[in-house]
Amino acid sequence: MKQSHVIKTFSQLMTLDKKRKNTFTGYSPKYNWGRVYGGQVVAQGLAAARMTVSEELSVHSVHAYFIRGGDSSIGINYEVDLLRDGKSFATRRVVAYQQGVAILNFSASFQLKEEGPDINHLLDLQNIPGPEDLESENWSGIMERKVVPPSQLPYGHAVWLKINGNPSPNATNEEGIVFASDDVPFDAAVRLHPSFEGIWDGNGNPPFFGASLDHAVWFHRSSSPYEWHLHLHEGTNHINNRGLATGKIYSREGSHIATVVQEILQRQSR
Questions:
Q1: 3-class SS string, the chain
Q2: Which domain holds residue 196?
Q3: Claim to verify: residue 97 and residue 28 sit in the same structural domain
Q4: What does pTM read for this prediction?
């Protein structure tokens, strides 16, 4: 059944309906490319998992496997499996379904806050253009994005990203960060391919068929996704038509907020 929900804001996106115990349904906006954006499914899956753990716990890592492309015209059901509730850690597994078929297998680990040293290697942003110096290149009204020219980077591929609108009462900072985290890795990985000559060819077609295979994020520090963050990624490996991108997410002050690793299927277009 086609969804009747109209999703235009991040707050609407992160409003999940509870269907029964440990089962939730989320909805999608329409995307230009047709399928559901992977970062959306991970963010909604994380929200579903978070709603089954104690409020004293915060997520510290997520690991997602994209099984099939999602259909943005119908709802997505998230079934949460409570794998473990320990004294300081909790583990959840989430499977996302559409019409009874799995599209995502996802796990998240949550931790109780502990006291200890904070070792933070700051990124020097003085020579990297800030978002106020760049033009917007948006694909959705939910998120603002500004691409940094490669010539002005120490390495890799980078984009400034932030969620638009007012902070959502339905989502944590980490859910906003993980939503944005799926934007940059593909473009970083594809640049490593020896045939890469730009993301689009002269006919407006991508030179590669690409699909995210898996996505992992480690959260180090909480930071509002409604503020600008620099997503700095680098393609680090390509074999068997799989590209690997690793990256870090930084605040405007250069603080290391999260680490991201993604593997992407990259088949050259025929």
A1: CCCCCCCCCHHHHCCCEEEECCEEEECCCCCCCCECCHHHHHHHHHHHHHCCCCCCEEEEEEEEEECCCCECCCCEEEEEEEEEECCCEEEEEEEEEECCEEEEEEEEEEEECCCCCCCCCCCCCCCCCCHHHCCCCCCECCEEEEECCHHHCCCCEEEEEEECCCCCCCCCHHHHHHHHCCCCHHHHHHCCCCCCCCCCCCCCCCCEEEEEEEEEEEECCCCCCCCCEEEEEEEEEEECCEEEEEEEEEECCCCEEEEEEEEEEEEECC
A2: 131-268
A3: yes
A4: 0.93
Asked whether residue 157 falls in the same domain as residue 239, the answer is: yes
Residue 4 domain flag: no
Instruction: List, for residues 122-152, the tens digit of each pLDDT value.
Output: 999 999 999 999 999 999 999 999 999 988 9
Same domain, 155 and 228: yes
- Which string of b and e fits 112-149 if b means at least 16 CB within 10 Å? eeeeeeeeeeebeeeebbebeebeeeeebebbbbbbbe
Q: Look at residue 5 and tell me if it is in a domain.
A: no
Within 10 A of 40 (CB to CB), how many other CB atoms are there? 26
Look up the CATH number of the domain holding residue 78.
Answer: 3.10.129.10
What is the pLDDT, as a whole number, of residue 270? Answer: 59
Residue positions counted in the chain: 270
